[in-house]
């Protein structure tokens, strides 16, 4: 069997990028024959980016409800909160001890924080915690503790998966005694929508404030966000060049090949941007409205979600526990006898 695993950091409300980059492909993969899946709320990762306890807790609940509303089948998927699996931080330490500092220096998130400090004329490490710095090692532990083969993610996470591979390789080499102790994981990026653009054409991201929320604000919120997608200033009737328009890329993420071709042809023939936005709204709404209704129903019963996650944690620990025990032995933490 192939193991598929992915997580989402619980720092806020999900946007369309999270849905098309991670949730939708992950759920599709979980329905394939011969696949065993592990989907989780990365709430330890959230502590690095957010210091509002209430927001983190709320986000954990919301994201769990999104996964369930999007069709996650708990009889096929092991579904849990990262912080319910103590084996993960323990493995993180074993991996931290074989990871070079130089490799962490090259991690995008850390480098971006340093560059921002330098540009602002501050100490390069100002405000950077060890949590941010060693973030990729915690993520490697998330993946390796279940020996996942495939990790569905957006393009922005690919470097982290490569780092997890490197760490796995180093562990195998140092402690594997010629065997493959950890599976080397591979990133699964949906090539069509590798990185969904936001309202302004940059990567859709909470931190750029350019997101289209998945469920927040309901159908009205979706429509209003779509109205704010930046387009060029061509008037109704004027031919428009579809390629490179954020609006068209977002359309593609929800459309069939035929719809994509028709939409481009209509724009080239002069479709007004306002009308194009209406079509985009209808396309997305058709896909997500049924999920939104399930989401609202799920959010009314947090105690049911809690129960699902408790069961998920139990399933997850039944796998993580034995693997951690083997890893401890491999590095020399054994019983005396
Ligand atoms: P996070 O929470 O930032 O994002 C969750 C998922 O959404 C994808 N994504 C996008 N995909 C396409 N277009 C976009 N504009 C876009 N924005 C976000 C991300 O690529 C990601 O797949 N470190 C991870 C969480 C994590 C994880 C893991 C993932 C922790 N441990 C182990 C996989 C495996 C993160 O912060 O993702």
TrEMBL record:
GO BP terms, alphabetized: tryptophanyl-tRNA aminoacylation
Compartments, as annotated in UniProt: Cytoplasm
Protein EC: 6.1.1.2
UniProt binding sites for L-tryptophan: 142
UniProt short sequence motif 'KMSKS' region, positions renumbered to this chain: 203-207
Keyword annotations: Aminoacyl-tRNA synthetase, ATP-binding, Cytoplasm, Ligase, Nucleotide-binding, Protein biosynthesis
Substrates-to-products reaction catalysed: tRNA(Trp) + L-tryptophan + ATP = L-tryptophyl-tRNA(Trp) + AMP + diphosphate + H(+)
First-listed, main subcellular location of the protein, grouped into a coarse class: cytoplasm
Motif stretch ('HIGH' region): 10-18
Superkingdom of the organism of origin: Bacteria
GO cellular component: cytosol
Positions with a binding annotation for ATP: 9-11, 17-18, 154-156, 196, 203-207
GO molecular function annotations of the record: ATP binding; tryptophan-tRNA ligase activity
UniProt subunit comment: Homodimer.
Family as reported in the entry's similarity comment: Belongs to the class-I aminoacyl-tRNA synthetase family.
Its job: Catalyzes the attachment of tryptophan to tRNA(Trp).
Protein name per the record: Tryptophan--tRNA ligase
Organism: Kinneretia aquatilis
